[in-house]
Amino acid sequence: MIDPQLIRNDLDNVAKQLAKRGFVLDTARLSELEAKRKSVQVETEALQAERNARSKSIGKAKASGEDIAPLLAEVADMGDRLKAGEARLAEIQTVLDEMLQGVPNIPHADVPEGRDEADNVEIRRWGEATTFDFEPKDHVDLGVTLGGMDFETGSKITGSRFTVMSGAIARLHRALTQFMLDLHTGDHGYTETYVPYMVNADSLYGTGNLPKFAEDLFKLEGEQEYYLIPTAEVPVTNIVRDVIIDADEMPRKFVCHTPCFRSEAGSYGKDTRGLIRQHQFEKVELVQVVKPQASDAALESLTNCAEQVLQRLGLPYRVVILCGGDIGFSSTKTYDLEVWLPGQQKYREISSCSNFGSFQARRMQARWRNPESKKPELVHTVNGSGLAVGRTLVAVMENYQDAEGRVHLPKVLHPYMGGVTVIE
RNA sequence: GGAGAGGUGGCUGAGUGGUCGAAAGCGGCGGUCUUGAAAACCGUUGAGGGUUUGUAGCCCUCCCAGGGUUCGAAUCCCUGCCUCUCCGCCA
């Protein structure tokens, strides 16, 4: 949620900044609701104050043995008036909250103008697009030929967009996960974290997945209203929900490997081939909870940590900054890492690193105690994939293939592969 | 799944209808003393929101959550959630 103070005091400017992402803020309706809220709230609270004062005097009168009947008569109708006022306030507040919850985050000044993916701006490249003296295969052809990547069985067991892996490929998938976790804990100072894979609605609300993006989620049957996590970002960030963090415990840096479950509603027909877009995939997620003034630097650092994975694996990639029209709902600034996929002859997203500012923190009341003001203040949250494991598997297979369809594993993975250096 | 106990401020814990946002202790912060520190002593110390130019003042809300009773609820009633103990089951 964006700062409601901004809505009150700087509405036109907020609307202008949101226009960068193609979002039209209904300023007329907002200021009308806000004016109404103000008058009803002031009125209701005055009524509450009166009720409190009168009740207190009744208490005193009773204690000193006076007759309280006349006092009681005076307040006879107060209850109803109060209830009416409170109900009206709650109603306006609900409408206002619903509206504000639908407002996306204000984009960072660095975010370029643009309507969609095509307008994202490349920031830098690492490595050269891999070239071959033969026609490179994509991971599906490689995987099926090698054995160990079985899409038919996945869809038999469950349905489309599910895969069974086995043998060396399954091991490679696990090796990549271990490698990423070891890198981020060992070299980058992140704390390994294990979290629930099912979360409640409050947690999803906190990160901004609810109420707006319910159709992207798998909701479980049963009384409890639980959802499968779409990313570790949800449970990990909610570690600090309703918490006031000591200044000397900042920043908090988490790395967490989880499966992710996404319904991919609205992406029918997109990336239907192979592992690129599955309902279930593994991801190693990086999350930082930082002081507000540190979040810009934290995004750069976290992005670099994710890039390190690609560099050590020797996978060519580029970094793009998302334009206003392509940036996510909760994010103020996002870098995507796009890895080179020879099978597609394209750079494809393998990580998305975002600074959320105080947007998530405000929704989940995640705060830190500022030693200067001595008051609890909202933290900033930053996160990104480090990396999506399935897509990394795809990238390794496609970039390290030879003419015979074998996959020569990068050196950093050898210790994790139990002596296997070539998948054949 | 069965039986019982309980959820109060950073922590322990008192409070069973009125002046209670809440005793006391611990912790934290500031001070006195000290070369410095400790001890001792004194003071101070919850969160959210509204109004307002205001980190001033005033006001509202919050004692797990949501309803209810009442002029008035931490305290009474209902529902839910969570925690603990014992038994059963289980990776």
Order of helices and strands: HHHHHEHEHEHEEHEHEEEHEEEHEEEHEE
Strand content: 15-25%
Average predicted local confidence, pLDDT? 92
Total helix count?
13
Number of strands: 17
In whole angstroms, the N-to-C terminal distance is 51 Å
What does this protein structure show overall?
The chain is of the alpha+beta class and 424 residues long. Helix content is 39%, strand content 20%. The protein contains 13 helices and 17 strands. The protein has helices spanning 4-9, 11-19, 27-63, 69-74, 78-101, 139-146, 151-157, 167-186, 201-207, 233-237, 295-313, 359-364, 389-399, and strands at residues 121-126, 149-150, 164-165, 191-192, 198-200, 226-228, 244-245, 252-261, 280-290, 317-321, 333-341, 346-355, 367-369, 376-378, 380-388, 407-408, 422-423. The strands form 5 sheets. Strands 1-10-11-12-15-9-8-4 form an 8-stranded mixed β-sheet. A 3-stranded mixed β-sheet has the order 7-13-14, with no helix packed on it. A hairpin with a 6-residue loop joins strand 13 and strand 14. Helix 3 runs antiparallel to helix 5 (78-101) and helix 8 packs across helix 13. It is elongated, with a radius of gyration of 27 Å. The mean pLDDT is 92. The protein binds one RNA strand of 91 nucleotides through residues 38, 41-42, 44-46, 48-49, 51-52, 54-56, 58-60, 62-63, 68, 71-72, 74-76, 78-79, 244, 365, 373-376.
